[in-house]
Write a structure and sequence with these properties.
alpha/beta, Rossmann fold, Arc Repressor Mutant, subunit A, 5-stranded parallel beta sheet, 9 helices
Length: 218
């Protein structure tokens, strides 16, 4: 797991959360967990992706925890539709599908986090909190500190840009990157623009997806 935190009180406003799952039992459990934790406020719940998308126009929330295999409109379709919307909520896919291809696809489609139903409930709650803070949380993030794979645009990255991509892939925020690299926030933003341009991507999610993609597979 990329991080572990203790449950704590907070003086900030609670994170507004939406939950979507096809299984009534899991949906009820998620509701109970969120209601019992003062870090969060349950904004809306739904049993399928279609109802979730309908709620977007009438309910405000920061983070949504959605299933991957859902009736009418699955997680893949939800992420594709949200890619067309401005100010869309950050999405965490919560699924029992253990295929490593799923988190890879989630990140390529712009998802902000992934959590397996085999993980502990406390871990899921921490993922929600950290995603709400702007981090990207995926189970393979720790592995992405390794050297950037050779091939394609990756060969053109400077050592500094490779370091920056590794920090992005580890879920670091811009402020954390600035502290880690010993530069200003404006310098980080400058390097990010150059990195996105070299990789022919628009944002950090697409940059990480390019990093994760196998050669010729993006």
């Amino acid at each position: 797991m990329p991080f572990q935190t203790q449950h704590r009180k907070t003086s900030t406003l609670p994170v507004e959360v939406a939950i979507v799952d096809k299984a009534p039992l899991i949906l009820r459990a998620l509701k109970s967990m969120l209601v019992a934790d003062e870090r969060f406020n349950l904004a809306v719940s739904a049993t399928d992706g279609e109802r979730f998308l309908e709620a977007l126009g009438r309910v405000r929330f920061d983070v949504a925890v959605i299933g991957w295999a859902m009736p009418y409109c699955d997680g893949r379709t939800v992420l594709k539709r949200l890619a067309e919307k401005e100010n869309a909520p950050r999405i965490i896919v919560y699924t029992g599908d253990l295929s490593p291809a799923v988190p890879r696809e989630v990140i390529k489609l712009g998802g902000a986090g992934f959590c397996s139903k085999t993980d502990s409930p406390e871990y899921l709650l921490d993922v929600i909190e950290n995603v709400a803070r702007g981090q990207m949380i995926f189970p393979f993030m720790g592995q992405l500190q390794n050297d950037i794979s050779a091939g394609g645009e990756m060969e053109n990255l400077t050592p500094r840009e490779s370091e920056l991509l590794g920090l992005l892939s580890n879920g670091s925020t811009n402020n954390e990157i600035a502290r880690n690299m010993g530069v200003s926030l404006n310098t980080v933003k400058f390097h990010l623009r150059n990195l996105y341009s070299k990789l022919s991507v628009r944002n950090r999610a697409e940059a990480i997806a390019r990093h994760l993609a196998p050669p010729g597979g993006y």
